[in-house]
Design goal:
alpha/beta, Rossmann fold, Dihydrodipicolinate Reductase, domain 2, eight-stranded mixed β-sheet, six-stranded parallel β-sheet, globular
Length: 374
């Protein structure tokens, strides 16, 4: 039996309780949770007590020095991700960081400079690409068994009430990095990109229609892929009937998934064209039924740690969706199509999802004076 991977959890909030610690427990003897850290001493103490974690602290540097974890799971608010990840990597620990990865492409690239070949690496929480149905679809799509990808829909239609934004860091450019495009729809968009590959151009719009935030509460985009496929993306926090829905139209089949915060095989539907051979039609759904979950991604991350290989949802693979978010925001603010190739270090949207630091979407998206008098 391999030596357990020593894990520390940074951040004692809801996501640690509801997602990460259950995933760690599912790993059984493969991991050992050695410590939890939070700026709130009582929150750290209570989490440690509830989950039988031997040590709790408010001092992250001391935790790294004393407990020498192999893996640090970062569950802090987004504005604290960069510093926490860099500090953990510098100690030699691998990192698994909650979404959104960081607040900008510049921060993402800064973190990447602290990784080393063979590890430590940082992977980001994009659990939807790890369910068995998504893995099977990825295999079929990459083998061209379904033909050419043509059309895709990617909808994250969620609901967050006004009081959701009472939390001080939510809905602010400097602390959350964006609205539902950055903090919510990024999950489905990552799944879209993991299946369709590299994007090349985005045309988007967004607005603040009903919530008191600096950022958007809804966005729409049309994305062009290197393959030639086109996709529409909608991200909303204004939708009382919540759903997450993706649809992929290949020349030989339509594949759909509808769920809310996670799926299993039963959430997927495959409609083959009349010309698809029976053998291919019978290849769906996959024989394994592993839901999309933190546990599914953690299992692969632990395997990568043991082999010293870069994990999925890391490096360029993890950066691609953050580029799409930056391109979407730039397209919205500048009212034009944005090519992925534009998003280099000279671009103002490289250093901030808000570009030149606008105050609110409402201000930026007001009709231009000459348009309002047309």
């Amino acid at each position: 039996m391999p030596t357990p991977v020593r894990v520390a959890v940074l951040g004692a909030g809801g996501i640690a309780r509801t997602s990460h610690l259950p995933a760690l427990r599912e790993m059984g003897a493969a991991v050992e949770v050695v410590a939890v850290c939070d700026v709130d001493a009582e929150a750290a103490r209570q989490l440690a007590e509830d989950w039988e974690i031997p040590r709790h602290t408010t001092d992250f540097d001391q935790l790294l020095a004393d407990d020498a974890p192999d893996l640090v799971i970062v569950c802090t608010p987004p504005s604290a991700h960069r510093e926490a990840v860099v500090t953990a990597l510098a100690s030699g620990a691998w990192v698994w960081c909650e979404k959104p990865p960081v607040l900008s492409l510049a921060e993402y690239d800064e973190i990447a400079r602290h990784e080393r070949k063979g590890g430590p690496y940082v992977s980001y929480v994009f659990q939807h690409r790890f369910g068995s149905a998504a893995r099977r679809l990825r295999e079929l799509a990459s083998s061209d068994a379904l033909g050419k990808p043509l059309v895709a829909l990617c909808n994250t239609l969620w609901y967050r009430p006004h009081e959701y934004f009472d939390v001080p860091w939510r809905g602010r450019w400097q602390t959350e990095g964006g609205g539902p495009t950055m903090g919510h729809g990024i999950h489905q968009m990552d799944l879209l990109l993991s299946l369709l590959g590299d994007w090349t151009e985005v045309m988007a719009t967004a607005a603040t229609l009903d919530r008191d935030t600096e950022t958007e509460d809804v966005s729409f985009a049309i994305v062009r892929f290197r393959s030639g496929a086109l996709a529409s993306i909608t991200n909303s926090l204004l939708s009382p009937r919540e759903t997450s829905y993706l649809r992929f139209d290949f020349t030989q089949a339509t594949v759909e998934v509808e769920h809310l915060y996670g799926y299993d095989n039963t959430n997927w539907r495959w409609t083959p064209s009349a010309t698809v051979e029976a053998a291919l039609a019978n290849s769906w759904p996959p024989t394994e039924d592993r839901p999309s979950s933190h546990a599914a991604q953690l299992r692969q991350l632990i395997d990568s740690y043991r082999s010293g290989e870069r994990p999925a949802a890391s490096g360029p693979d993890g950066r691609r969706v953050l580029e799409l978010v930056a391109g979407l925001y730039q397209s919205t603010f500048e009212r034009r199509a944005v090519r992925r190739s534009e998003l280099d270090s000279s671009n103002p949207f490289y250093g901030s999802m808000a570009g030149h630091s606008p105050t609110t979407f409402t201000d930026i998206l007001k009709p231009k004076e000459e348009e309002s008098h047309a």
